[in-house]
Amino acid sequence: MHLYQSNHSENLVKTLCHILAEPLQNPFDSEWIIVQNKTLGDWLSLQLAQHLGAWSGQDFPFPRNALIELLRLVLPKQVEALRSFEPVVLFFDLLQGLRDHRGEKAFLPLEPFYDPEIKLWDLASQTAQLFDRYALHRPEWVLAWDRADYSLLPKEALWQGILWNKISSKRDQAHWAALIKPFKASLRQNRENLLNRLPSRISLFGLNLLPPIYGELFTHLAQVIPVHFFHFSPSPHFYADLASKKQILKEEWKKGIPAEALHLEEGNALFAAWGKTAQEFQLLAEALWDYTQPEPSQYVPQFNDSWLQRLQSDIFHLTQEPLTKDKPQDSSLEFHNCPGEMREVELLKDRLLAHFNQGIQPEEVLVLAPNMSEYEPYIKDVFERQPNPLPYAFAEVQLKDENRAFHLLRKFFSLAQKRFRFSCVFELFEYPEVYTHFEVAFEELAQIQKELQAAEIRWGLDGKDKARWGLTQLEANSFQEGLTRLALGLVLNPLDPKPQFSTMPYFGLEGKAAEPLGGFFAYLAQLRRLYPQCLETHDLAGWISLIREFFQSVLLFSADFEADRLELESKFEELLGQAEQANFTSSFSLDCLLLFFEERLTGQTRVKGYLAKGITCASLQPMRSVPFRVIALLGLVEGAFPRVAYPSGIDLMSTQRRLGDRNLKDEDRLLFLETLLSARDSLILLYPG
Fold first, then answer.
1. For labeling, which of 143, 278, 295, 416 is most exposed (least CB within 10 Å)?
2. What 3-state class would DSSP assign to 618?
């Protein structure tokens, strides 16, 4: 394996271009460049096009997908079984397994999770994620469980080994841990045959920490084909043995020996405290990887022309120079405490306008936030505000927030969760896809709402619906009573004495004013048919059928909405296939369905205007730091950044941490360091105080 390291991503790109300039043997082969996320792949694609003049025919797979494809090429028979160990498929198997083993001695500690059902779903989801991590980070555990050896398991966690053994035995034990040896053996024994099937070369770009099993597989693959690893490294020096001040004090207290005798060095305090993930990467690379490091060095020495560069230079040299006041204060490093999120964005706009007056272009500015979806409305409001509107684009959006079909689906399901409230029913009706389907004009919505409220409709479909919620079966203030009052008011004469009806007519509606209500009555008729089904249990295929029926009978499809619906439909088909693969046919409630969909769609993003013409706005993600002249960080509030991940009570790895285990807080800390090093002219830090 060839390892290229630099503190400037631009240099890594230039080196990658030099390697890619040599054409592949087969001109129809794709260039494999493994990245951590889509936006990094987009940035890299633009950089390659600028340096090479033209660029196409590349694949930017994620590490896991790339290794699955490589395993398919090397071990074609086992890879299908490996896909059945994906967390979603494991989830269905675990849910069924937990139900089947209820009452057994090893499963008695889980008894509180069986009721209500949603708690069992949450437990199965957590366990599926854990099993996936065990196979990657604790292969010896799962290999022992394959043999029904549970000797190392604590008594209260015995159920984990039993469930894993049951699931693994059905899949011929073809999981990550079990495929390491066959993969290595096949690379050694079938080298000549595999050369025609494997990609001509593989490059890895921007990965700052890999599970040890990934590094091991890529190292063995490098014995057959060229593998080039491009790594962003803060310093050319060996920094794996640096210790933070906190660690030094802890060791001094524990051993009763001064730090000098322990030979512990802090180097740069900021790097020692926030660079733990980079240190672990260096330790793993030195211990497990067989690599060569080509010359010359890719590192760029840092200067001391500004406060930001002085800080970057200290990290580069792993030194701690005192920040004297021999240089005048400049705007390269700014900290702003603001009274709220809106003021953060307003102040940021003021500072960016000042930078633009000094020659900075909007395309050279990156705005980051721990959760950009929270700041999106503020940025839209402030950046578009006159005078001096700013051009901007969001790099990506959360699929569950951006997909309009899923948004309308959640509104529909909220009717069953909120007792068919009038506000929820009418809020869904106000969407253009809904009221246009029932031939109602936008101008008529206000009048419809006014008449319905005057008819004193509050909540509940009818008396039977109210009884479902444990209340008396009364029609009062329900939709049934309100619509009856409106209908009676239209057909009866208000001057007739004492109408013989138990429901008082509503006489405030007459003539053409009643026509728009026809569309709402048709809308309510469809809800009356679909809503009761939401209160029942269905299997996954049944729920998907209900969702499709809702789309067909309530919504009018436009071009944009159709694209969102098809995108959501593809997710449904994928989930249905995974459920069928696990032979999962059980029925479940709406609460479980929503939990399941939310978890599956959380974290899935849709790339939009990354590096478009204007300021780029993006969420902070580990291993995605790219160079910009000005970088601003919003929302640096405790708990949001760095993220705090509380270990699950069933996670056996939390008490036995090893090198390579994920730690969200440490990953965010390294991301902050990389962001600091990627800012070329100015770094602006804003936080609500």
1. 295
2. strand
> By C-alpha distance, which of 514, 511, 547, 510 is closest to 440?
514
Report pLDDT for 603.
66
Distance CA 60, CA 38 (A): 8
**CA–CA distance from 589 to each of 257, 541, 542, 558, 592 (Å)?**
60, 13, 11, 31, 5
285-289: long-range contacts (C-beta < 8 A, 24 or more apart)? 285/3, 285/215, 286/240, 288/212, 288/215, 288/216, 288/219, 289/1, 289/3, 289/215, 289/219
Under-70 pLDDT residues of the chain:
259-263, 323-329, 495-501, 510-511, 513, 603-604, 606-612, 622-624
DSSP β-bridge partners for residue 605:
398
Collapsing DSSP to helix, strand or coil, 207 comes out as coil
- The per-residue pLDDT for 469 is 81
Amino acid (one-letter) located at 652: L
Sheet holding 227-232, edge to edge: 2-6, 227-232, 202-205, 31-34, 58-59
Question: What pTM value is reported for the model?
Answer: 0.86
* Beta-carbon count within 10 A of 100 CB: 12
pLDDT recorded at residue 396: 78
Question: Pick from 461, 508, 453: which is nearest to 481 by CA?
Answer: 461
- Which pLDDT value is given to residue 139? 92
Q: Say how far apart CA 642 and CA 671 lie, in whole Å.
A: 9
Burial class (CB in 10 A: 0-12, 13-18, 19+), 371: middle
pLDDT score of 328: 63
CA angle 315, 18, 74 (to 5 degrees): 95
Q: Is the peptide bond before 499 cis (omega within 30 degrees of 0)?
A: no
Per-residue pLDDT at 500: 64
Write down the residue that tokens 């271009």 correspond to. Answer: 17
Q: Where are the beta strands (DSSP E) in 263-364?
A: 333-338
CB 589 within 8 A of CB 537: yes
CA 357 vs. chain centroid, Å, equals 37
Six token digits for residue 652? 């056996």
- DSSP letter assigned to residue 270: H
Integer distance in angstroms from the first to the last C-alpha of the chain?
48
What three-state secondary structure class fits 536? coil
Backbone angles phi, psi at 418, to 5 degrees: -120, 30
According to the model, what pLDDT value does residue 121 have?
A: 92
Record the tokens describing residue 546, joined without a space.
């209900």
Residue 642 is predicted with a pLDDT of: 87
Ramachandran assignment for 172, one of left (phi > 0), alpha (psi -120 to 50 degrees), beta (any other)? left
Contacts of 206 (CB under 8 A, 6+ apart): 9, 35, 36, 40, 44, 230, 232, 623, 624
Cβ contact 614:666 at 8 Å: no
Q: Are 535 and 590 in contact (CB under 8 A)?
A: yes
| Maximum separation of any 2 CA atoms in the chain, in Å | 104
The identity of residue 287, as a single letter, is A
Rounded to whole angstroms, how far apart are CA atoms 409 and 593? Answer: 12
d(CA 587, CA 490): 44
Query: One-letter amino acid identity for 342?
Result: M
Whats the size of the chain, residue-wise?
A: 689
Look at strands 396-398 and 605-607 and give their pairing.
antiparallel
pLDDT value of residue 455: 87
